[in-house]
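Recall the central idea of this unit: under ordinary conditions, the amino acid sequence of a chain determines the structure it adopts. In this exercise we apply that idea directly, starting from the sequence alone.
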Amino acid sequence: FLAQRVVLPKYGFPVDLAVLEVSRSGDRESSQVDLSRDLKLAITDYAPGSRTVANKVLWESAGLKIPTGKALLEYRWSICSNCDAFAASRTTGDVLCAVCGSNETEKSGIFLQPIFGFIGKKCDEKPGESRPQRTVFSQSHFSDYAGLAPDFEESDLGGQRVRIRFSRQGLITVLTRGRGFNVCLSCGFAAPQPRRRPGARNRPAPHDRPPGNRGECSSVLVHRELGHQYLTDVVELDISTAREWRTAWSTLYALLAATPSIGIAAGDVDGTLRSNGPGRAPSLIIFDTVPGGAGHVR
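Accordingly, the structure predicted from this sequence is:
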């Protein structure tokens, strides 16, 4: 409880682990492997259709684990067409943009948080000389601050006034980007599929249940992405001169590229932009990639 709310360092208490469960496949080698990842990595490494090598065997993700009587959390995400603000919530219907109040979205979708893990199976193929290619990639977004947002402090950097604020309660949303997945919310079957056409209706589609669940399932397949949310250390920089988004992105990447010069490994921090409304410069968000934070951005 304390680790999830960033009172204790979360990297010491891995509470968001996701397991690719291969024991259901019945293969002898399945008892000799333990495939687990932090959930923000698992949504790409163990995404349905992805393959991984363990104990000289190739394993493939075949679906999402959904225990009896349980359901996966669904979140609706959107990017405002008026101010480019990102939002993610459990609300199923359309909501007004929290930044500018618009109800028009440039992009939107629904993602599942696979908190129960994944179900895998042994592949007939043998591992090759190189690691299996990923089928999807992930993208991080800043959602909001948990609780009250901290106050800005002004600082003089390079002759410019920059507003800066720090929080240990920054909510980061990680989404898979790519074709998305056709998912059965009943049995957990999932497979990579192209995004369905606008106006197309969900229809029952017979499919084999994931390993360990015998028989065929005829429930409806729905288009979903995978995602994960976590709290971590966040620094927000409001630089008035970086008014255009392209300029702000360039400034952000320059800062991230410079982190090794102060002893921080490139993979320990990441960044994104936060909208401040139409016509205003976006803020630069730099955050620790470790859920719960590790003090790097501070």
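The longest strand covers residues 160-177.
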